[in-house]
Amino acid sequence: MEDKQLNRYYGCLTFVAKQRSHDLCGSNGLPLTPNSIKILGRAQFLKTLEHPNLFTYIDVLRGKHERTVIVSEQYGTPLSEFTFENIIEILGLAKDVLKALSYLHSKDITHRSLSKKNIFFTNPQWKVFNYGLYYMTGNGTDVLFPIGDIKYFAPDVILQGPHEKTSGKADIWSLGIILAEILLDCDIFSNESLSTCIKDCLSFIDINDVFYDIAKKCNKCDILKKLPYEIILLVNKMLKTNPIDRPSARELLKEDIFALLTFEKVNNKKNQSSAYLPLDRNLLLELYHYWQLAGGDVYQELKKEGLIRTKPAVLSIPNLLLLEGTTFGQTVNDARIFEEQLIFLTINHLIERFRKLPKIYRYPDLNNSFIISKETSEMASLPLAIKERDIDYQFKRIQLFKKILKFLPSEHNKILRESRQDIPPFLRAIIWSKILEIDNDYLYQYTCIDKETPMPTDRQIEVDIPRCHQYNELLSSSAGHTKFKRILKAWVKRHPEYVYWQGLDSLCAPFLYLNFNNEARAYSCLKKFIDKYLHNFFLRDNSAVIKEYLAKFKHLIAFLDPLLATHLLKIGFSPELFAIPWFLTMFSHVFPIQKILNLWDSLLLGSASYPLFIGYSVLQQLRSVLLESGFNECILLFSDLPEIDIEKCVKDSMLFYESTPRSVTYRQNEVVDKNEKALFDGLDPPAVTIDIITNECCPRISNAELKVMVQNPILKTKLLIVDIRHPTLYNESNIPGSLNIHTVDLKLEKHIDNSLMHKSELSVLYNNKGKIITVIGDNDKKTSEFCSFLLKSGFPKVCSLNGGFRTLYMNGRPF
Amino acid sequence: MANKAGPQRPNGTAQAKICQFKLVLLGESAVGKSSLVLRFVKGQFHEYQESTIGAAFLTQTVCLDDTTVKFEIWDTAGQERYHSLAPMYYRGAQAAIVVYDVTNQDTFGRAKTWVKELQRQASPNIVIALAGNKADLANKRCVEYEEAQAYAEENGLLFMETSAKTGTNVNEIFLAIAKKLPKSETIGGSGSGQGRRLVESDTTAKTSTSCCK
């Protein structure tokens, strides 16, 4: 942020959308989307608009009873209070407004309520305000009040009736009337009644020189006569009664008269000193974000100004109610009024606050980020809920991430490292896309995909979307549904080898929510996410993939929590019964959006196996209940999953992940990093098939990884190798330090009880409980049985060496 | 069947028979299978009931005269693609509810296909009920009551039009199934693989509070 004068604020407008009857429902039997949600969905697009002559939309909020609040950038002097020095200044106004209209019309947005109140002088340029009301309300259909000031309405607007879409040409007429008023220095139609207004407006039809007519009506012909001919011509062009003859904003900007402005330096006496520093959209949004973090509450501000009045319900009871249901004597419904009253949200105090922060936070130096890390480390260990609401902390984090983002891709490692600490919600969308490494030309790629042609999966997508995270306002809006459908269709279209499985919708939801105004980025994130974490899950026949995933999940439970694993096995409560939606949707079908965001902040930084650990951590939070429950209680528990502490889940899963050998969770259907490939040598078919994995209850460790552990002095102390071959073979050759337990005298179908405790090998085992126990044998079946025996006896971290003892010799000597 | 200490019989009599049945719900996506189960088991209704992925499981107990009938309900995903998983769910099921949406003719066609498949592939004694759900949306009806009724009669199915939203006929259809199921097979008697697991947990199970009369 520059250290310049930033004297500005945001403006708030509020209105109430048309209420819908509660009994109505749509063709699919679902309740109709409330109008305020439709408005909210459409208004998201307005937030993407950026033009020097437009005030940027900042936020749209939805309150109770269909109330909608619009927050927009807003400052300067309204046109209604501005005094012009000369014609050149008036031309400057016309040019700026035309530029704004030209931009809006190119986006198919009609202002419709252009008036002196909606144009502001923000030294040195003019900016148009409230230009999205007509668009966001579905051309006025979602509200009860009329949009626009009738005295600025073009004859075509009056003639077209209330619910037809007004074209941009109507805005040109409004500007013509505004210019006429300024040039003639009068208020046209000021004291007229509504009907006279309409009559007068319609009387202009068939008149060529409307400007002259107006001057005559206002007794200002003398002023008109003194005006330059070009100006009169310009205004008359804008006031062509037939919209076809009326030029567009783009055409008008080409008029010679505007060229004059470039030669004639606008003489601005109010210049320089009070000039406003233009802020770009992102900065405006960022400041608003801080304003909210600092405790800013739009509703409170509106209440303070009396714009939202809470009225006791008893006051809205009608005086008279007829038997047929007609009511009398009610006060006028708020919904019928649109108060064009603005309230202001100031941000100057925030800027003061940030200015007092040490410079290093405002301009982070990436090569010296040690200082920042050190100073924020105290904060870093606090709970996420506190960090996300701390304005200073968020400011520091956002500045740091902005700097890192500027230097991508060379700073890719830094973004991963910093994200591990936490991701500031304000920048989450962009940070996620960078972590997922979406392609630079993602926009082009997305544009190239056909998202419109009907296809067989459309019906399924259409019934799934209105059921997917619909408590979320954005995702339940009509605009949200449209985008949702396009992204899903694009994914299906782009991946002919895969198909749409229910659950893809849930996966898409967090990305769409974050990138609501950037469909292409939402799509690309979804694509990259599935490529990494759900490889082959969307195959037409994905049963083997799911089977393997769940088998590995079972292995992980057995590896980390033998007691729980044994209990679940005993009651027959297998992961097939609850974990398919967990992994197929990476928990996005399980948790609400806000929780998914926090969960995925960490999930995205992990490997393709990491989600298994998240699943395990979720189970751990339910552990005590599960251990006490039978099959039926377990099923009921999972049908309505209790509250899960996501932050704890993330922390735990990382610990589990770090203490588990990588090959233990290796999946044949996972996309493995090139550098890691050697680690998983031998774990693929034909040596190991999915059936083998499913039938064994403990995981296998790869030869390569065991070797790494044996050779590392620290890791070695955490390892116990149990050799179950015949003692003769063991005495011939063995891994130094390994323990030989001959299985013949053990009843493996049982677990270790007192009668076995006298055996010295077993007491060695008990003394080493907690270490990673790697079982090495020469027969897969026996090895697996022994592992299961240890598992039942309550030993954690049991795994078998893949391929048995002979693999140790494959490349020469045993290690 | 372990006789661990005192499970409370729902009707308090020691002689009460307990029958456990596996019931599976089948039908096209978004016809209201999960909503029917939710209404039956918890008495709730969510307008935006989420789609079911894979399958969901719930249990509910109803009392019929001197018998306690415990339903183990397997609520399946409706998407055609999950069809390949369906046999795994309806295998060993003693009852099935095939659901369609009265406002959508296609879902009725799909229901007929499910009935055929069950008659061919499921256990021969399976009790099949046909449920025309969303009956509250009378003004959007596309499948006539008489049409479905005739079809059900022809195929020996129980039939009711239901509304998970208002609760109409939801308990009724489950009760009708319970009545029609053979009660001679007490717990563990069926010998099916699915029954075993439930036996173990049964004795420790808490008594359902929402037991019907």
UniProtKB/TrEMBL annotation, chain A:
Q: Name one GO molecular function term.
A: GTPase activator activity
Protein kinase domain residues:
1-258
- Enumerate the SMART domains for this protein: RHOD, TBC
Source species, domain of life: Eukaryota
Question: Where do the Rab-GAP TBC domain residues begin and end?
Answer: 422-607
Q: Which PROSITE patterns match?
A: PROTEIN_KINASE_DOM, RHODANESE_3, TBC_RABGAP
Which residue windows are coiled coil? none
Which keywords annotate this record?
GTPase activation
Recorded hits in Pfam families, A to Z, give: Pkinase, RabGAP-TBC, Rhodanese
Record protein name field: TBC domain-containing protein kinase-like protein
Q: Recall the taxonomic lineage recorded for the source organism.
A: Eukaryota, Metazoa, Ecdysozoa, Arthropoda, Hexapoda
Automatic annotation (TrEMBL), chain B:
Location (main, coarse): other
Keyword Transmembrane helix appears in the UniProt entry = no
Q: Name one GO molecular function term.
A: GTP binding
SUPFAM superfamilies (UniProt xref)? P-loop containing nucleoside triphosphate hydrolases
Biased composition (Polar residues) is annotated at 201-213
Q: What is its EC number?
A: 3.6.5.2
Domain of life from the UniProt record: Eukaryota
Q: Cite the residue spans of the region called Disordered.
A: 186-213
Record GO biological process: protein transport
Q: Which InterPro entries match?
A: P-loop_NTPase (IPR027417), Small_GTP-bd (IPR005225), Small_GTPase (IPR001806)
SMART domains named in the record: RAB, RAN, RAS, RHO
Q: Which UniProt keywords apply?
A: Endosome, GTP-binding, Hydrolase, Lipoprotein, Nucleotide-binding, Prenylation, Protein transport, Transport
Q: Which reaction does it catalyse?
A: GTP + H2O = GDP + phosphate + H(+)
Any idea where this protein resides?
Early endosome
The UniProt entry's GO CC annotations, sorted and at most eight, read: early endosome
PANTHER family, alphabetically? PTHR47978
Recorded family membership: Belongs to the small GTPase superfamily. Rab family.
Q: What is this protein called?
A: small monomeric GTPase
Instruction: State the species of origin.
Output: Nezara viridula
Organism ancestry? Eukaryota, Metazoa, Ecdysozoa, Arthropoda, Hexapoda
